[in-house]
Amino acid sequence: MERTVFIVSDHTGLTAESVARSLLAQFETVRFRYVTRPFTDTEEEVYGLVYEINSIFEREQVRPIVFSTLANPVLNDQLKTAPALHFDLFRTYLGELERELGQPPTGRVGRLHSVSDNSYFTRIDAVDFALATDDGLGDRHYQMADVILIGVSRAGKTPTCLFLGLQYGLRAANYPLAEDDFERDTLPEPVKAYKDKIFGLTINPARLHQIRTQRKPNSQYASMEQCEYEVRRAELLFKRVGIQYFDTTSASIEEIATNIVQSAGLKRKIG
Amino acid sequence: MERTVFIVSDHTGLTAESVARSLLAQFETVRFRYVTRPFTDTEEEVYGLVYEINSIFEREQVRPIVFSTLANPVLNDQLKTAPALHFDLFRTYLGELERELGQPPTGRVGRLHSVSDNSYFTRIDAVDFALATDDGLGDRHYQMADVILIGVSRAGKTPTCLFLGLQYGLRAANYPLAEDDFERDTLPEPVKAYKDKIFGLTINPARLHQIRTQRKPNSQYASMEQCEYEVRRAELLFKRVGIQYFDTTSASIEEIATNIVQSAGLKRKIG
């Protein structure tokens, strides 16, 4: 079974898409075909969309599913004339919130991801920081870090740092553990002074072997033996020094980042 | 007026938080204090949470607002005993979807951001690609790019490329336009062969001046004159060569990225 799903928004539609995908992931035997229509904010566009939904309904003989966030009630009513199962993410909760908070919603479009000077600079700064301190670079900046991730190569440090910057505005540096670092019982020299900011990432050796093989097939670096050795030594170090660490083996970037934020008690820096 | 908002999820809670923030942004005179409780999946945790909500209700004399996504109905019922305005993002739409699709939801936790091998490698590859081709580096990889962003320094290219990689799994390279590139009427040599993949970013000169000043105060690079010159020449180039471009001045990273995906007709590579 295949169903067509429209994501209609007067803004980016990223939130609506995320809601739709979480909900529809609960129905595993259905194949969903997503059509996204961000920045839909004119009657002409909605008219075209209604026409499109109609055509699909006629062709597929089953109504499409629409997830929408349209602030303008005129456009919203217009969209609802289409033959679809319509989930209006905007209005479902807004009435109840209005009663609770004793004031009407402003009705302004796309307030969530609008650019505000403050959060713009915070995010860009955090991304710049992650890039400047990636892979052990720029250790002179560590005192400005919110968190410093350490772990073996390909444990997930870089994408997690970038995600922490983009999503939370946090300054995340990362330092790769390598051969030299395993010969001592202490944290590597460059990060030694920042123990309270350090968070470890570990990974299952077989998974690491798979990831490194993807990158450098048949290398010593990717060998199962090397992966087992590095992971064992890294985990030993985490335990010996007493720093928190997280196993990234079956975790997505979102899961790793959320775990770090939660476990390290970090505060989101952007709204 | 200040209200406490709980985001409770058995998974990352990122979707729930995004919904909550979009909705509450509609009430501008209220200050919302967010408390996030990701990975809430035991009765003990929910018990503690109910206690916490109770305490806040007693202290603030107004009930907190709870946005939740808990797949487990037992935990969900338990959470609902707390004195709060409760928005159950999970169940609001699930009943209707179940009827429409003619099958029960699987009830599995956190399917959205779960790691699947395929999307894991696609995302990591896309982030690696953005890093390897940032700021004009790695032009030998351009043939593998989904999109190549060009624009003056600090027009928003790098964070947009990273976001396109993390959010869409798209391989986005970026090439900075500089002095040399303005002396000719054609696309710069390294990107010349890829006109159909190129997307331009532009920015208001005054805004660019502000951003560059933040980075290198009182430099020639940040001067209003230089910013005006570069932007004028870049836009001329975009028009002359006939490539699509987008003004990032008052756009967030999400808005820039969504616009590019939409305008360039790119397809999301990860679920």
Automatic annotation (TrEMBL), chains A, B:
It catalyses: [pyruvate, water dikinase] + ADP = [pyruvate, water dikinase]-phosphate + AMP + H(+); [pyruvate, water dikinase]-phosphate + phosphate + H(+) = [pyruvate, water dikinase] + diphosphate. This is Putative phosphoenolpyruvate synthase regulatory protein. It comes from Meiothermus hypogaeus NBRC 106114. InterPro entries: Kinase-pyrophosphorylase, PSRP. Belongs to the pyruvate, phosphate/water dikinase regulatory protein family. PSRP subfamily. ADP binds at residues 151-158. Bifunctional serine/threonine kinase and phosphorylase involved in the regulation of the phosphoenolpyruvate synthase (PEPS) by catalyzing its phosphorylation/dephosphorylation. Keywords: Kinase, Nucleotide-binding, Pyruvate, Serine/threonine-protein kinase, Transferase. HAMAP family: PSRP. GO terms for molecular function: ADP binding; ATP binding; phosphotransferase activity, phosphate group as acceptor; protein serine/threonine kinase activity. Its EC number is 2.7.11.33, 2.7.4.28. Coiled coil: none annotated. Pfam families: Kinase-PPPase.
